[in-house]
């Protein structure tokens, strides 16, 4: 429907807004484009900016295929991160681990992710999302394979660091890439849907660990050992190889291409999406002219430069992007994003990575003290003083109940993710984030008052569910508050803060759990609740166009 059909002196229909749900779409005649037709029905062209163009592709098969591949990237990333929590109890004899070195093994991947997030995020803003994702996926897979062959703690640490450096780019880049294919009406629910793939990663890794690690399989010699937990690691690398191949078949982000002035390539991608979603010929895609705003036009001249100057400008762009996120008006968003991600992931990774270890310690205590209740701190003190943590008493034995409890804990996130998918575009990102951080903070404090394995399992499962729900909301919010030309860089810097939170959480818990047990739970509780409230100072991005 056209709001007004007034004609100019030549009899051509003037451009006017079409009421199709996007005020950014206009009708333009062949005459307006210098093509000589004045019939708006036969010769009318729709011109649109990104939001209008992606809406006109309609929503269908392509977007669900994209969700499957990008979700699989998130699944493989989470598998690689969380796999360490299942390896620690099994590898403590092989690698001669103490609670302190376990904390560093949990943390080293986050140190690598901090380094990788900034580099890869900036590279994605300069070179493109798809290319960077393919390189990251192959690098990640190869580093996991190499780490599985490492025979000592030092080499294992090196390859886990490199693994983290690759993973550091995967998070910010895949979220930016996926979001840039989504119309504003669907963006929140689909980003929440993709966050649910993290839960699948947790489930897969817990199931694989239960299936493989307890088995007496592998290769053993006097100089080389390749046992069950190493085979488990090797299998965890397979998803990264698969997604690297699948990404070859997906297009580059059309929003990124528009930001580089590559309108013809962007148009071809819009037409392809339209064809896949509707089954119609590409030529029937109604948008024929893409509108570039001033920020997009600034990049279009770069494509005309020689390769040497392009590379120089790329590095200058990386530096410039880094500066811009710390300048008003973006500075406020950056600081809040950094703070929320830091505090949130102290809790998320600080506790989640230690749940299998805590389950194992409770199991060890209950074997030696059947039908006797004890707090987390009493259990820890016993294991450190008398159990498998003391030098010379190393034990690789892990009961099936430990894996079952871990599986139940991560499975608790499934209903939470379903609720997030359904409600995030109705109740908003900030509602879910505040609810999640407040509730998970209470759960963290309740860990101190746990006295049985069952109580520990219940609190851990509730914590896993509510914090996963908040993780989906946080991913949506962080992806949406930064403008396109700074999105991957802004999200990457936020991810650096998140990884630093993971490092601090793991080291602090590893140090204080054995030395001063009550402290970790209350520290995590305070940081989760305080950090979550900061999101109230961010703008409402629910169902708003990407800037």
UniProtKB/TrEMBL annotation:
Main location: membrane
Pfam families in alphabetical order: MFS_1, Sugar_tr
Alphabetical list of InterPro entries matching this protein: MFS, MFS_dom, MFS_sugar_transport-like, MFS_trans_sf, Sugar_transporter_CS
TM regions (residue ranges): 103-120, 132-149, 155-178, 190-213, 229-250, 330-351, 406-424, 431-451, 457-478, 490-513, 519-538
Top-level taxon in the UniProt lineage: Eukaryota
Its membrane topology: Multi-pass membrane protein
Alphabetized UniProt keyword annotations: Membrane, Transmembrane, Transmembrane helix, Transport
Major facilitator superfamily (MFS) profile domain span: 64-543
A single cellular component GO annotation: membrane
Annotated GO MF terms: transmembrane transporter activity
Location within or outside the cell: Membrane
Stored PANTHER family: SYNAPTIC VESICLE GLYCOPROTEIN 2
Family as reported in the entry's similarity comment: Belongs to the major facilitator superfamily.
Name assigned to this protein: Membrane transporter
Naturally occurring in which organism (per UniProt): Oryctes borbonicus
Organism lineage string: Eukaryota, Metazoa, Ecdysozoa, Arthropoda, Hexapoda
